[in-house]
Amino acid sequence: MKKLFLTAVAAFFMLNVRAQTDANMGIIPAPVSVVKASGHLTITNNAVISALPTDMKIAQTLKEFLLSKGITTKIVSAKMPLSANQKVIVLKSSSGQQVNNEGYKISIKGNRVELEGKDAGLFYAMQSFMQLFPSKKVNGEYSIQHVEINDYPRFAYRGLHLDVGRHFFPLSFIKKYIDVMAQYKLNNFHWHLTEDQGWRLEIKKYPKLTEIGSSRNGTIIGNYPGSGGTDNEVYKGYYTQAEAKEIVAYAAARYINVIPEIELPGHGSAAIAAYPELSCFPERDTPIGEKTPWSGPRTGKQVQQTWGVFDDIFVPSENTFKFLENVLDEVIAIFPSKYIHIGGDEAPKKYWKESAFCQQLIKEKGLKDEHGLQSYFIQRIEKYLNDKGRSIIGWDEILEGGLAPNATVMSWRGEKGGIEAAQQNHDVLMTPGSNGLYFDHKQSLSEDEPLTISRTGKGYSDFIKVYNYNPVPDILTEDQKKYVKGVQANLWTEYIETPSKVEYMIFPRVYALSEIAWTPLAKKDLKNFSDERLPLHLARLDQTDTNYWVPTAVGQPAQTVNGENHVITLAAPVSGAKVYYTLDGYRPSENAAEYTQPLNINVPQGTKKVLKTIVITPSGKRSVVMETVLNNGAADVKVK
C-alpha cells in the first residue's frame, strides 16, 4: 500500500481506541481465539527483532513497518542472548500449527512480542500484528495490550478473481491487488487471462494470439447490449511470459497461489480471430454482437467489441486439441499452481449443432448430445493436465453432460452446482453471484452508483450480504460438507475500466470475504465487524491513495418506515468521517446539517418526510446518498 497521509488527531485517537478495546483487537479476519490480559507493552526505539535466517524477509518487513511509525529497531539473530529487560519481537518458526502451516499464534506479555508460525503462518502472524498495532501514541509511546491470540483458517482455499480479458490492468496494479489479498489472508489469485474480448497472455508457439487476439477495434458504450455501436477505439494489452512469471514470484513471496484461467470451449473469440481454423466454420464472419442486431460491417473473425455470449466456440477437432495442449504446456511452465482453470462456462451449442463434423463426432464417440460433446471436450483436457500433474477447475457448467473424473467445480450460478458436485464427491469452491460474491455488482440501490453490470436491484450486493453468506450449504450431509474446500469472490470487468474503479468495487467487500473465508462460523459477528473493525480499516484506507466505496451511515433505516414519531440514531462507518443530512428534499452535502445526536423526527398524519444522508470521510471521499422515507399515511410513497 502507498504511504499514509496525515489526518486529524481525533481520527487517529479513535483508531487507537477501537483497536485496543475491540474484542478482536481490530483484526480482519477475526481470529479463532483472542484472550486479553492486564498490562501493556510499549514499543520504543530500543526494541529488537529476533529472527532465524529463514525468517529475515518477515523481519525486514516488520522493521520497515515500525520505521513508518517512527520506531527504529534492530534485527538480531535468534541465537543471540537477550537481557530480561530487552524489548523484543520474536519470530518463532514452528511445525505444529494447524491447516497446512497457515495457523499462527501471537503472544504479547511483559517485554516480549512472540509471533509464532511456520511459513504462511508466520507471515499471517505478522499481518495480524501490524493490524493490531496502535495508530497513535499514548503519552509519547505506542502501547499494546497484553494478549494471547491463536488462529487458523476455516477454509484452505480463499480466493479472489480478476478478469483482465474485458479490461487490461498494468503489472503494478496486479501487484497491489495481490498485496491486498496478502494483508487479509486470501491465498489464491484467480487470473482470468483469456476472453472473447482479448487474449492477455503471450504464447510463444502461437504469436498471433497476442498480435491479433490481444487487440479489439472498439468497445461497447454503456450497458449491454448498448445502441449497436462502439467507441471505435483500439483497445489492447497483454502480459509477456516474463511478466506473468514476475507476478507468480511476487504472489508466492506472499503465500498466494496464482491460478491461470484459459477459457474453453467457449469465450474463445479472441483465439479464433487469431486462428480461424479453431472454429467449426472458419469461413463465417463473426458478428460483433451475435445476440444483438448489428448494422455495422462484417469483417470476418474478430476480437469481440461487445459483452455477452457468442456462438462461435472451439471446434472439438484434433487440431484444436493439439493447439490447446501446446498452449497449456506453456501455461504450466509459467504457473506452478496445482490448479489450472479451464472455464467451461457459457458455451452455446448452436455451431456444434450445425456442424456436420461435430454431429459425426457425437455418433462416433457414442455421446448423447452436444452437452455430452462438451463433457468429452473437458475430459480430454483434464486427462492431458492430469498427466502433467495438474488438476482442473471449471465453472459449474462442466457438470452438464457428465463431470470430468477429477475436476473441481466452481459454483457461480447459485449454490446448485456446488451442491450437486459435493453430492458426487467432487471438490467444490463456492462463488455464487446470487450470494454477493460477484463484486462487479453494484453496492447499493442509489442512483449515485457508477455504471455496473446490474442496472436494477438485481445483482445488488453490499459488504453485509457478503458477510452473511455461509459457503457450506446446510442441505449437505456432514461427509459432503468436507468437499467444500473454500470460497472466492469474482470481479468481472466489462464495466470496470480503471484500477481506481477496481478498488471502488472490491472495498470494503473484500474485508467481508476474508472473514467468511477464514473465521469459524461460530465466531462471526456482523455488529462487531461493521461497527468496530470495519471503521478502523476503512479509516486506514482513507489515508492512502486507494479508492473505495464509502458505506452509508450506520443505523439508517432502509427504504420506508411508517409512523408518526421516529428516533433515528446514526454513526459514521469510517472513523473520523462525518454524516450530513437533510429533511427538506434537497441533496445533502457538507453544507447540510451535520449529524451530532439522535434525530427526533415528527411526521404529521397524511404526510411524509424523506431523510437523506451522505458520509464524507477525512480525505473527502463521499458515500452515495441514502434515502429513508418516513411515512405517516401519505398515499404517494414510492419505495426506491
Description:
This protein has 640 residues and is an alpha/beta fold. The chain has 17 helices and 26 strands. An 8-stranded parallel beta barrel has the order 8-9-14-15-16-17-18-19, surrounded by 5 helices. A 7-stranded mixed beta sheet has the order 1-7-5-6-4-2-3, covered by helices on one side. Strands 20-26-25-22-23 form a 5-stranded mixed beta sheet, with no helix packed on it. It is globular and about 80 Å long. The chain starts with 8 loop residues before the first helix and ends in an 8-residue tail after the last strand. 47% of the residues are buried.
Shape designation: globular
Q: Sheet with the most strands?
A: 8 strands, parallel, barrel
Q: Hey, roughly how much beta strand do the residues contain?
A: 15-25%
- Total beta-strand segments: 26
Cα(first) to Cα(last) distance is 37 Å
> Which structural category fits the helices and strands?
alpha/beta
Features:
640 residues, alpha/beta, seven-stranded mixed β-sheet, 17 helices, 21% strand
